[in-house]
Amino acid sequence: MVPVVTHIPTDKPYVFITIDDGAVQHPKARELMIDAGVWPSVFLNTKYAEGHKDYFKALPVTVHSHTSNHPNLLGKPYEFQKHEICGNADFLAQDYGKRPTLFRPPFGNYDATTRKAAASCGFKALVNWTAAVNDGRVQFQQGDKLKPGDIVLMHFRTTFVEDFTAFLNRAKQDGLTPVPLEDFLG
């Protein structure tokens, strides 16, 4: 079974931004990332990323897996989960030239079957989160600030600019530096 990671143990003031799905290819995403010097980890679905390779390849990101069709995997049979997880990894390997090493289940929902299927597809870890950004607001699962090692979730949505800016402002307010997740889980 793959390990489940929701927080990175670190004594450094580091925070990790992850961006899911790929539904909206916001035209300002690349510029925002480059201007901020922040290299997110993205977890793409086949259904959203298909046909948009040029957009995602132009971003300063590392691409990881988030299933083919974004189903809730919880309680689904092994073969169904393996097909969703491995199929997405195969697609991403073909389109982006490298097989992803990290997997995020849609909605953060998983079970032991998910962890087994992800391991059989070659993943090193199942990654969830400790905070999320929605509609320009950072939302915490515990407490009222970001802490070193937190993994933050946001999505490719029409509110991308507001969400990414809210994350950057919150990280700065809490004295944290965004760094690539792969530096710790690669």
Can you walk through the features of this model?
The structure is a single chain. The protein is of the alpha/beta class and 186 residues long. It is 34% helix and 20% strand. It has seven helices and ten strands. It has helices at residues 29-36, 46-49, 53-58, 78-96, 112-120, 160-173, 182-185; strands at residues 4-5, 14-21, 41-44, 62-65, 102-103, 125-127, 131-134, 137-140, 151-155, 177-178. The strands form two sheets. Strands 2, 3, 4, 7, 8, 9 and 10 form a seven-stranded mixed β-sheet that branches. Helix 4 crosses helix 5. The radius of gyration is 15 Å and the shape is globular. The model has no long low-confidence stretch (mean pLDDT 97).
In a nutshell, what does this entry contain?
The chain has seven helices and ten strands. The chain is an alpha/beta fold and 186 residues long. β7 and β8 (137-140) form a beta hairpin.
Q: What labels describe this entry?
A:
7-stranded mixed β-sheet; 20% strand; globular; 186 residues; single chain
* Helix content, binned percent: 25-40%
Give the SSE order as H and E letters. Answer: EEHEHHEHEHEEEEHEH
Q: What is the general shape? A: globular
State the secondary-structure class.
alpha/beta
Structure annotation, total helices: 7
Give the quaternary arrangement of the chains. Answer: single chain
Output the radius of gyration. Answer: 15 Å
**Between the first and last Cα atoms, what is the distance in angstroms?**
17 Å
Q: Strand tally, please?
A: 10
Query: Uncertain segments of ≥5 residues (pLDDT<50)?
Result: none
Mean pLDDT over all positions: 97
Quote the beta fraction: 15-25%
Main β-sheet: number of strands, strand sense, barrel status?
7 strands, mixed
